[in-house]
Amino acid sequence: MSAEIKAGKVAKPKKKGRIIKFIKEVRSELKKVIWPTRKQLVNYTISVLLISLMMGALIWIADAILLKVIQNTLTS
Q1: pLDDT digits (tens, 9 = 90+) for 29-76
Q2: Residue 15 · residue 9 · CB < 8 Å
Q3: pTM reported for the whole predicted model
Q4: Is there a contact between 45 and 53 (Cβ–Cβ < 8 Å)?
């Protein structure tokens, strides 16, 4: 062990070296990604939009029903 490590001082890599290493690692990880095809992407997007619209409509309907119930309860 060197005297620097024993004293609790560890040499840090230079900032520029860390940034370059980070970018290389990001590029390496992105090469491992299995990207969807255009057709898959369109299908997934349509699915998300439809489900979002259906959930929005369901919440809107539930809100309207609960509003009527609460109004009837309070005015009775």
Answers
A1: 999 999 999 999 999 999 999 999 999 999 999 999 999 999 999 987
A2: no
A3: 0.57
A4: no
